[in-house]
Amino acid sequence: MNANRTIVSPEDEAAIRRALDSFVKASLDQDWDRFIATFDSEPICMPAGAPALTTHDAIRAFYTRFPALDALELVPESLEAAGALVVEVGRYQFTAGEFSDRGKYIHLWRRGDAGEWRLYRNIANSDGASSS
Q1: Are 101 and 94 in contact (CB under 8 A)?
Q2: pLDDT (tens digit, 9 = 90+) per residue, 88-127?
Q3: What's the angle, vertex CA 56, arms to CA 102 and CA 23, rounded to 5?
Q4: pLDDT digits (tens, 9 = 90+) for 25-67
């Protein structure tokens, strides 16, 4: 184990996993208000195959044009504290009608003013889209 790694507290890990669950459920439900609420006030979202999105309005516009998801799975593989941030590395897969994709992602979580964890940076990288 790298001596520079900082362990995320069990409480923070549980809070981040709840925020991630809310992100997934909001995506599946197409509840864009709840989806956007998971993001920090200064977000950068880098979806696979698209330009960086740097405002809540840009993120909302991108995802509302995306086909409705039939399934979405985000699997965190590691959570690591990095100063005031938590780095989450994981893998994803989703289906939307006849389209499916899988890949990997990195989330940076930042604690909000009320102590909640918000998605500060989000980058996804496809392993290669495929049709179902």
Answers
A1: yes
A2: 999 999 999 999 999 999 999 999 888 899 999 999 999 9
A3: 45
A4: 999 999 999 999 999 999 999 998 899 999 999 999 999 998 9
Please name every residue paired with 119 in a beta bridge, in sequence order, or none if there are none: 39, 109
1-30 as b/e: b if 16+ CB within 10 A = eeeeeeebeeebbebbeebbeebbebbeee
DSSP code string of the chain: --TT-BPPPHHHHHHHHHHHHHHHHHHHHT-HHHHHHTEEEEEEEE-TTS--B-SHHHHHHHHHHSPPPSEEEEEEEEEEEETTEEEEEEEEEEEETTEEEEEEEEEEEEE-TTS-EEEEEEEEEES--EE-
